[in-house]
UniProtKB/TrEMBL annotation:
Principal location: cytoplasm
Binding site for [4Fe-4S] cluster: C199, C202
Location in the cell: Cytoplasm
Name the record gives this protein: Cytosolic Fe-S cluster assembly factor cfd1
Protein family per UniProt: Belongs to the Mrp/NBP35 ATP-binding proteins family. NUBP2/CFD1 subfamily.
Iron among keywords: yes
Functional description taken from the UniProt entry: Component of the cytosolic iron-sulfur (Fe/S) protein assembly (CIA) machinery. Required for maturation of extramitochondrial Fe-S proteins. The NBP35-CFD1 heterotetramer forms a Fe-S scaffold complex, mediating the de novo assembly of an Fe-S cluster and its transfer to target apoproteins.
Residues that hold ATP according to the record: G15, K16, G17, G18, V19, G20, K21, S22
InterPro entries per UniProt: Mrp-like_CS (IPR000808), Mrp/NBP35_ATP-bd (IPR019591), NUBP2/Cfd1_eukaryotes (IPR028600), P-loop_NTPase (IPR027417), YlxH/NBP35 (IPR033756)
HAMAP family recorded: Mrp_NBP35, NUBP2
Keyword annotations: 4Fe-4S, ATP-binding, Cytoplasm, Iron, Iron-sulfur, Metal-binding, Nucleotide-binding
Amino acid sequence: MSLSKIKHIVLVLSGKGGVGKSSVTTQLALSLSLAGHSVGVLDVDLTGPSIPRMFAIEDAKVTQAPGGWLPITVHEADPTSGLGSLRVMSLGFLLPGRGDAVVWRGPKKTAMVRQFLSDVFWEELDYLLIDTPPGTSDEHISLAETLLQKARPDQVAGAVIVTTPQAVATADVRKELNFCTKTGIRILGVVENMCGFVCPNCSECTNIFGSGGGEVMADDFNVKFLGRVPIDQQFIVLVETGKRPRYPEGTVINGQDISAAAKEAEAEEAKRDTAQLVLKYKDCSLAPIFKTITADVVSAVEQRGA
């Protein structure tokens, strides 16, 4: 079975579109890999598969093996540096073009989700992150039902819920928390995304969408609040162009000066910009934030298994 070599399955959910689930999934995957874990990412957002673009591997082609697919390798493990392997699978790899629309009714979506969970040949993985579409409809129901049928009882570790601070977002995301309760999916915690904006021209981080809505929601449902993640234009540039993040002197995020790494980078810019995405990400302002979030997620998963 496709899931047999996977230790832990973590879903990334939100009842609201546009809150940055794929961004959170990508950074969780990179952070887990940097922590030495072998990671897989399964993109089941069938009508908006953005994971290939997030990892800058849109041109990759899936290899068909007898009875299924081989996932795309983002990078291999490097035991000398403590880096874990990272592999991904998405419908985006199977479409002829990046702008092609997927116009499918519910039954075909359901069949595709089930096929992804049974016909992708993952190697030994510590974590499989599943990036989901917004809402609580066909894909989510199929995902929950299939995991209950095919996964081991201890294999589905739980879900990371993503929201933005505004009340209009948390109102929809609360429905996702209720969905988890009804389907028996454990909630590992809530991430409040887009909480602040890191200015690329000065050292300010401004709460343009407010702050605190995700934490209040987490308290209301008595689940762990994992942290706040600001919008960082440098992360967008990294994903879109591969350019290593660099910040003005004095830029402080969560009490940490992140401009020092940029100064050191200037001397070896050409060499460093040929590095892997995961290594460039270490210089991003969001990397230390997700390091903490990832550590909390791993701790919650391991406590459950203990």
